[in-house]
Every structure is written in structure tokens, then in C-alpha cells.
Write a structure and sequence with these properties.
Length: 173
Amino acid sequence: MQEPGAWAVPLTDSICTDATLTGGKAASLAVLHDEGLPVPPAYVLPVAVFNSHLPDADPASRPERPELAPELQTTLSRIAAELCESADQQLVVRSSALGEDGESASFAGQNATYYYVSADTLEKAVVDCWLSLWSEPALAYRSGLAANAPFGMAVIVQRMIQSERSGVCFSTD
């Protein structure tokens, strides 16, 4: 099991099922993987990484664009090298916000996902994903339906795959 302070944690690590550390989407994907469903290989940058780069983030006011710590830059390079099986392999960078996919709020479509991300643009996509917490739709959703939702974001870096079909499962109406 990875330490909670790690820059990145494999989705297969048990820590990923804790939505308070890795957000709702990552926790759901980790559970699906644990149940034997085919989930593409991925790493999660826990909420603590967001907090270390945006320590004074105000949910109502978009911050300046943070510069990534050198250790995170190195980690992202390693992840890209591991997940990209060939030079033309792409990645997907997915939001996994606190309160996302939860019982009281979903945030469906409010935070960003970036498809077909190259290793060269991975760092930018991670920061853009974090900053999507302050998009107009996310701000509106948070001020209305999710005013009391916890604030922060983990990010999933996942191998991009070409699928033939996909599905959505709802466990509660």
C-alpha cells in the first residue's frame, strides 16, 4: 500500500478506494477494478497533491496557475513512460473531485476530462484539470446543488484506449 503523501498511486492500490483521498471517480474506478471489471491502467494524483500546489485555494475564486513541483514533473514523466506502450500511445486525464459521484452530489460533466493527451502535454492537462474546479458550470453547481460539498481534486492519469462500447451504471435513483 502506498503512503497517503505519495505524488501518484496506482489505481490498483487499496488507498484509491478512499474517496476522501482520491475523489469519487477514482474511488469508483478502483472498486470496479477490484470487482474484476476491465479498467484501463491508471495512476491517481491524490487530493494532497492538489492541496500542495494550491494550498490556499478558495472555492469561489480562481487561483493563479500553479507551477508543478519538480518531483511531480518527474513522477508524471515516469507515469507517461509506463502507461504509453508505444510512441503514439495517448493518455486521458480525468478529474476526481471530492464530493464527485457521491450520495449528495454528482458533479457530472462539471469538471474537466482531457482525452488524447500526449506525454509532452501531460503536465498542462493536470493543471487544467485542477483549474476546472473554477469553471463557470462548476462554480454554479457548487453554489447551488453542492454548496456543502467538500472541496479539492485528485486527478486520474489513465491509458487512453479505443473502445467498442461503454456503459454507465447507477446504483441509486
